[in-house]
Design goal:
7-stranded parallel β-sheet, 7 helices
Length: 245
């Protein structure tokens, strides 16, 4: 039997995925990480997919379904949009998602969110949405959003699982552990609502100043690392009635 590298890795570093039910009486917030054209729409810039990608398509579809549920319930949503100023590179990546271009805008399936009153949109110029929420006066838009909405549970989806999603989750968990995000208790990463990009070894070998990034392997590693930091990893999410006293 021939095992792929990703199968070997999954055997060596497995993690448990849960079925998570969000109760109606536990204030829950949804965070959308960088579900924008520059990372998701074919041909939309240096870091966009070159051809349709099944994992990215599923991530968009699952995220859009969840966004509809949250908007129907008028539950809070925060959407981080990667947006960089011209000339300010984000090493080691080429220029991408430049402010004012369509690359830095929500994908078509989510653009309706811009008109929803329960949605907060934050353009950020770094991997980590937590750091990208810092203001010049020292305040933090994300922290204020959690506290203002009294969020106890956070559901996270987006791209890339092992980069911007992971960085945001790690910072959020550290801040929660330090008491900076009261009353936040649980951070849940929905695996089917996340995706990362694919840059196979066969291509990386022949491309200068790049490293391989096999999609399925790095998606697994990103989820594994988030689990190790204290996040719950959900294979499915649903919404239940208020808990009985």
């Amino acid at each position: 039997m021939v095992f792929k590298t990703v199968d070997l890795v999954k055997n060596e570093i497995p993690f448990e995925e849960e079925s998570v039910v969000f109760s109606e009486d536990v204030k829950t917030g949804l965070v959308l990480v960088d579900i924008i054209n520059g990372f998701c729409t074919v041909g939309s810039g240096n870091l966009a997919p070159r051809e349709p990608n099944e994992q990215i398509t599923e991530m968009i579809n699952e995220s859009a379904k969840l966004a509809r549920v949250f908007c129907d319930k008028k539950w809070p949503i925060m959407a981080f949009l990667d947006s960089h100023h011209p000339g300010k590179l984000e090493h080691p990546y080429p220029p991408h998602c430049i402010t004012g271009t369509d690359e830095s805008n929500l994908v078509p399936a989510l653009q309706w969110l811009e008109r929803e009153s329960n949605v907060t949109i934050r353009r950020k110029d770094c991997y980590d949405g937590y750091i990208g929420s810092m203001e010049e006066d020292g305040s933090n838009l994300f922290v204020d959003w959690v506290k203002t909405n009294q969020i106890k549970a956070l559901l996270v989806v987006g791209i890339c699982t092992d980069i911007c999603v992971l960085d945001f989750v790690c910072s959020t968990l550290s801040a929660r552990n330090r008491g900076f995000l009261t009353p936040l208790e649980d951070v849940v990463v929905y695996s089917r609502g996340c995706a990362t990009f694919d840059f196979p070894v066969s291509v990386a070998r022949n491309t200068k100043d790049t490293i391989a990034h096999p999609q399925e392997l790095m998606h697994h590693v990103g989820l594994y690392m988030a689990k190790g930091r204290g996040a719950k990893i959900a294979r499915e999410v649903s919404f239940g009635a208020p808990e009985k006293p």
